[in-house]
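During the reporting period the student researcher (J.K.) took over the structure-prediction task from the postdoctoral fellow and processed the backlog of single-chain submissions. One of the processed entries is reproduced below for the supervisory committee.
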Amino acid sequence: MTLRAEMSGPVELPRFGLGAAGLGNLYSEISEAEAMDTLLSASKAGLDLIDTSPFYGHGLSERRIGGCLAQTNWQPALSTKVGRVLEPAGDSPVPDNGFASPAPFIPRFDYSAAGIRKAFEGSKARLGVDRVDTLLLHDIGRMTHGDAHEQVLGQACEEALPEMAVMKAEGLTDRIGLGVNEIEVCQEVIDLFDIDILLIAGRYTLLEHEASLSFLDTCHARGIDVMIGGAFNSGLLAAAPGQPTHYNYDTAPDWALYRTARLRQVCARFEVPLPAAALQFCAAHPAVATVLAGGRTSDEVRQIAGWTQAKIEPDLWTALREDGLISEHAPVPA
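J.K. obtained the following structure tokens:
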């Protein structure tokens, strides 16, 4: 295993990072060679944070990242998740969970203390590391668990998060928190348990942010860092004409398509790529430590890197506000 260097404190998170669900064959399959090229391009582009999960391709994403790290000197900040354990499928059918050709494992929720340890041991083995920078409890919340939400929340606060805090004290990670798609469960948890960071996917974006804005303000006031995932709303804000349009990992609804078209029209007037505006908007909130963008190919990674550096005149943000596409209270890039 690669032992990441001991530091006097947590490494500061890069402003932008790579979301690695695509490396687990989200929506469609990529080859091992394509996955390696994607990671090497991220290294060259300075996207020095990778966020992954055992769930992504049922371990495939983590394994591909580990393979790259084993063959290079690259030491990006690593973020992964616990809350599911992977069980060998054997003769049972493998659910796809939105991933094309996932690894032959069945992910099962397990928020027990023992399940948290077991999940992390598997992640360490696939990634080839002894520790990670950030460890997140994955997919708690009513949207995921329905009527079982209260039970899951109780176990998260009584078993999972305390065990993660012990693991942090043991030096296995620098930060603990949640990786979720729901603001409501974040609010519930921060009122019950001290955490360092929240990864919130798809809820604070250029497409939709008004409902989440006050919560991010609360996080900033309380010193809780936020990682923004799904900055393109499952690819919708970055989709080229003719490409499939997804929102929340499903077919994009009409309201989202209409609002995206309006955003694209305003950006076009200022000759700014919509994805560049999307990434830089998310990064402007003072609570946000990192914005993640999902790239599946080396070309996409190079595009992402370019978008993070694109020059955007302040007049664009003014126009978006005037058209009612940005909340008047939302911070925008200086």
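The committee noted the following: The chain has eleven helices and twelve strands.
J.K. will present the remaining backlog at the next meeting.
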